[in-house]
């Protein structure tokens, strides 16, 4: 144990944790500083400066000793305890002023409040070890039983104090009484830990020869029995006190590997140290490997050591909290013996290399397991959100199920004592390595499970935001023609009134169907009398911030795309009878008319300044409504494309589905020519509807969910790519369209269905029920007139390419190239042509989602440069600098990670509890409970 006096330990247990602590607090301070008053700021500076000075003193002292090749003095242990304990105490006392309740919890990452206790606890533990070593000299004979006795007396005295003295304590009604009680708890805990560590040290080191023949009698209980009992108690397997299954008092240790490793760790420590070279090499390897297990639990329970006395007094099994400490001391002792024996056979460098390699085995295996989870999850997310419609996929469903189960457990935060279903440190490591500290939302997990397994885990509550009492009471618009870019800039000024008589806050929410070629380029909202301009931000970050601000009844407002041209518009909150003013700027090329709620907005009443020429580039063409009037009308030949449900448990419907298809073919012989059929579950298999189609159908594997979204998108993509004089009429064949995986519309692929916006559900009655491709696809459209298949389209030719456009009075956008590059220099602020190019980019990645990971980042960048909102950005109004700071932080986090990951339902990290908070909590609870008992006895 003499190695504990090496000053290099101070760099590891003090300098490094405090540097990390400063880094974490600096990030939080930069966000919340605008919400702190002068008193709060004074405390931040005082505690920060004090901790910085303490850290520099430690660093300077360690550096001096290292240069002088001296050992750590006993006075360091004394000084560290006398300095850091008051620091932690005062930090706990002022915690409400350092983090005032006025700061929203969602602005602070994880349990930032308890980080101080977590990161300073190693210094306190190290100081204790230094004192133990210095006060257990070789020159004096020490009795381990005396130290055990003193350690035993301390919790007994604490219990008697709580039962006899505490009820009579007259100072407990004031702040002095509480301070005195907590100081007694701290002093008693330090004394208890000193004597228990000293007893183990004397037992393992000083009395090793005497106890060698009785080693199994004391080693087996400490290294095997107590760890297994501790796991069982924590997991609720013994006494059934906590009734936990996937959670525990101090975290989720239910995985069977914890029990296996606890057993083998104990076995390696109990095996005798024989004088055999190969045997000791094997034993050293085994002990090095399981030391990672011992070290892990030592770290986990290190912050809880200060409450061990209180826990022993309050809970009979509280002594189990000391097991990791005892095990840690014994494990180091056994490794030291192995090292002493092996250094006569091998070089120190080889022994240290062997130790580190063995120590890293378990962390490496855990990392490999997590990386496998990451690979499987990324494959599933890419298949769902960044697929290549021309490629076949094969996802490992077994591994995916395991990965999803792990993610769901990591997301849970139940009401158990401290960690709930989280595994200390390992959960944080999983979230960092697999999810990059983001999450997979419940809705996405439902989608993944529905696609691959045909089941869901979560009940998703829809956000009912429309309030009928909040309406637009006035609309004014002003349009200005910009000759430089040959386009219009129009401001729409809105006055919105809450007509409700109740005192609850209301919200205005609607959608705006923007015409093709029109883009939002600015926004404002009056917050009180101040006109706040909108911030253009990445969409997911903006929506996350909006949702959290809204939950506080503050002043957010947001604009974002729900689909290709449909924009959601939300303003919150509205007090009783409140009138609010807001405005939206729109860039457009020609006169446009659209609706906001039931109000018609017409921008530009004359056409004298409108440029008539075709607006084109090498990749994107804008075809105006005027230009479309001169295009040739043609009729393409339709054909049936059946999308048949072959998901889990649907084999029994096969005869029915076959009959329906045959009836549809007989009723519509013209559409039967060149017909296709796709068999749809997690994947899609498409064949021509030839004479063998029934046999192919019967040979399908019925599994997973009915992934109708992918089937429709694949069919539309292939239709667009061919640009033939034929087009598919999509017919869905299933027992329930409501059960299909169909979460959004297909308006981003509208270039692929110019004839009609409809697909059809082939019902039990062999009828074709129409559904919309551009709005709420699951809902039936009750309009039989839409069943005609003779719609004409407009033929647009450019070069040797032919495109088919909808025959309507609206503009269209044509992609001359599916995939094209866009130079950043082509993007100009508030420029209509830039908006056109970005819209083309959006349609490009809708056709080719496999490029969307990179193009998503580019689109966000282009949007920021141009100030034009796109489907990947959002205009958001917030009311203070802290909200802007957290928006910036979350935006950076999102843009640095997989676009399919989410901010919502964020998993908290670093849940390790603060020393003083826990001492205070348990001390006060103990004081209160004994006082109640005393009153009852009266």
UniProtKB/TrEMBL annotation:
TM region positions: 9-27, 47-67, 74-92, 112-136, 148-169, 181-204, 216-236, 256-274, 281-301, 307-330, 350-371, 913-930
Sorted UniProt keywords: Membrane, Transmembrane, Transmembrane helix
Domain VIT: 458-588
InterPro entries referenced in this protein's UniProt entry, alphabetically: MSEP-CTERM, VIT
PROSITE patterns: VIT
Source species, domain of life: Bacteria
Protein name, per record: MSEP-CTERM sorting domain-containing protein
Species of origin: Flavobacterium nackdongense
